[in-house]
Amino acid sequence: MEELDASRIVARQRDFFDSGATRDVGVREKHLKALARAIDGARSRILKAMKEDMGKPGWEAYIAEMGQSLSDLDRAARNVRSWARPRLVATPPYLFPASSWIYPEPLGVSLIIAPWNYPMGLAVAPLVGAVAAGDCAVVKPSEIAPATSAVLAAVLSETFDPAYVKAVEGGPEVARSLLEQRFDCIFYTGSARVGQLVMEAAAKNLTPVTLELGGKCPCIVEPDTDLRHTARRVAWGKFFNAGQTCISPDYLLVNSAAKQELITELAACVRRFYGDDPSKSPDYARMVSDAHFERVKALLDAGEVVTGGETDARSRFIAPTILDRVSPEDQVMQEEIFGPVLPVVEYGELEEAIAFVNERPRPLALYLFTRDRGKQARVLAETSSGGCCINDVMVHFSNSRLPFGGVGMSGFGKYHGRHSFDTFSNLKGVVRKSFLFDAYVRYPPYRNALKWTRKLLRYVF
Ligand code: NAD
Which residues are catalytic? Predict the structure, then answer.
């Protein structure tokens, strides 16, 4: 039944795409603006749904999801005409007289599978790229945030003909039946385990995939930094959305000369942010599900609790927690935490911290706090990560001029702003020749062509 629906949905979208309707950049612009209006109009419904799904504080929901989606949509609507225009690039002299162009063309029908932690933002962000690029899209929101999934599906159906963009709600079984269809592009955000399944399914049709995955994002702190500022920024990033953020600083790697003071400052920040009893704070989210609550709670069983540690299963509350004296073998240092628990690992010299990072899978983001430009350059050059912030955490996500995405086990493919447009496009390389001149050396019989070509290639081009 589901399979039949999936094939019909995709077939309708393929017909719509083949009709050429989405080739019109004006149509894309109009729909990007309409989606922005619809999201803005549904503001209170969306914020309420996120509160229901995971107690997301209104400000966090607005800034990280609605505000981000609206600014992505506005920016894409403003720029889609210039992104879609053929781009002139240089032409090597041996092709003279000619010009070379990159012609962006839509890929076709795309599939977007979204996660639960930013259930609206991480569905809309890739969708902006798909619509701007002129693709049709099937969006599969996460079943683990059901209230937001329902509002998002309603907003999309108010804005788009389902043959253009359609949300298909449901869990893994729905995702699987969608993945059995042939798409022209798949954009997946979520865990590496499911990412592998997505890639396997995509391989059958050689469909290009973007995988936005997770991992453990390290946060290195050198003693020359401003520790009060550092603590405030780290605590904000770690406990935002109760740590359920793919680019949350997963663990601290702190120089032993700064460790004690940093821990004291962090504990003070937690009190300032959420009061003496964070379970009463309106600004602190909950674990999204019982399963995630149990998983994160089990991670508390390591090292020494400096602050936090309290839990309440009924409300899926886990207090903002700092763990000192953890060992790399503890479970909390083996898996992505994805919850409000900050383990602290100490190092002596910067090279130890760099080695610690490089011995592990390449992270989605790396954070470094130091005033020393030499150390900044060294860490950038000697480590690899999808993105990086120096002297802050997570904020690189909000600059849509920067490509966002992972590397290695944290995923591949980049998006945001024009990078999203490019991800959902085929960038067709085109050379336009003139009839003014022809280099006869390229045509048989070649005679002395090799001798002349070697000289020309070496000395002229
Ligand atoms: P998940 O893999 O459980 O689910 C993501 C999506 O995949 C959901 O829509 C779900 O329905 C679908 N899905 C689940 N099982 C499936 C299956 N067997 N076949 C096909 N589809 C299936 O991931 P999650 O728990 O929602 O997200 C958490 C992970 O996502 C973390 O690792 C986090 O770091 C990562 N993440 C990455 C980014 C990023 O931008 N790189 C953003 C958010 C989350």
Answer: 212, 246
Choose one of 168, 194, 396 to mutate for the ligand 1 pocket test, by most ligand atoms within 8 angstroms of C-beta: 194
Q: What's the pTM value of the predicted model, to 2 decimals?
A: 0.95
Quote the ligand 1 centre to 191 CA distance (angstroms).
Answer: 4
Q: What's the order of all strands across the beta sheet hosting 109-113?
A: 165-167, 136-140, 109-113, 185-189, 209-212, 411-412
CA 146 – CA 239 distance, rounded (Å): 23
Give yes or no: residues 328 and 363 share one domain. yes
CATH number for 227: 3.40.309.10
Q: What is the pLDDT of residue 459?
A: 66
Q: Give yes or no: residues 341 and 390 share one domain.
A: yes
Give the Å distance between the CA of 136 and the centre of ligand 1. 22
Regarding whether 417 and 390 lie in a shared domain, the answer is no
Shortest-distance atom of ligand 1 to CA 192 = 32
Pocket lining: 194 vs ligand 1, CB cutoff 6 Å: yes
Among 177, 189, 247, 420, say which to mutate for ligand 1: greatest number of ligand atoms within 8 Å of CB. 189
Ligand 1 geometric centre to CA of 373 (Å): 37
79: domain CATH number is: 3.40.605.10
Q: Which domain holds residue 395?
A: 218-405
pLDDT of 4 above 90: no
- The DSSP element (H or E) to which 155 belongs, if any, is helix 146-159
| pLDDT tens, position by position, 292-333 | 999 999 999 999 999 999 999 999 999 999 999 999 999 999
Closest CA to 221 of 396, 397, 405, 356: 356
Which residue is closest in CA terms to ligand 1's atom 40? 212
Domain-embedded: residue 258 = yes
Give SS3 for 247: coil
Tokens of 429: 């390389």
Pair 147, 239 in one domain? no
If one counts the domains in the chain, the total is: 2
